[in-house]
Amino acid sequence: xxxxxxNFTARLLxxxxxxxxxxxxxxxxxxxxxxxxVPGQFVSMLAPKDGKTITRAYSIASAPRNHHFDICLNRVxxxxxxxxxxxxxxxxxxxxxxxxxxxxxxxxxRDSLLIATGTGVAPMRAFAQWLFAHPARFExxxxxxxxxxxxxxxxxxxEEFERMARDFPNFHYLITISRPExxxxxxxxxxxxxxxxxxxxxxxxxxxxxxxxxxxxxxMVSGVRKLLMEEFGWDKKQIIFERYD
Length: 245
Fold this sequence. Notes:
By secondary structure, the chain is of the alpha/beta class. The protein has five helices and twelve strands. The protein is about 20% helix and about 35% strand.
């Protein structure tokens, strides 16, 4: 007999605007003193609607810290759950279950590409916070975070990642904008182009001794997987991914 899934209560502690349609939310789990999960996992939020329980999955955008967790999400026009979450006020509560998911770092850790677009950066923030909390977790490894978005206003957690890149020289943070303003002086184009540049910058014998963690929309995930497997000879098992559509 399968035990019933346990639901918990998430109370909103903080709500920050990341861009015009994107929020960063911080919750505490009321029933627990320690909410344990593996960075990269997700929670399933629950809410009643028309006599039914609606469920939506959201990647945790933070490393474990006591009984707290963060998410980031886009407000979707006419989207029941995204509007419910974006309109929550501090102190309000909703049910969830979890953690769930297998989008987690491999052990042992190798040189790694972390590739994200939009709110797909959420699990990458969890990875980075966890790794950089204890230098032994990433010692001797190079980590490349490639973040792509259309507009500069949608570069989420930029200051935090830039601080990490300053503090840890083997963490390489690269932003690429596909529809940049004239004033943008950074990289332009899609994440696939930047991944290719990174791969070509490594000695040939080091190009396959890596793993990739990809989170974003299906077209981007498929494009990066194709690039790594067809142009650089990667095995599909080296590529861990999570699609958002």
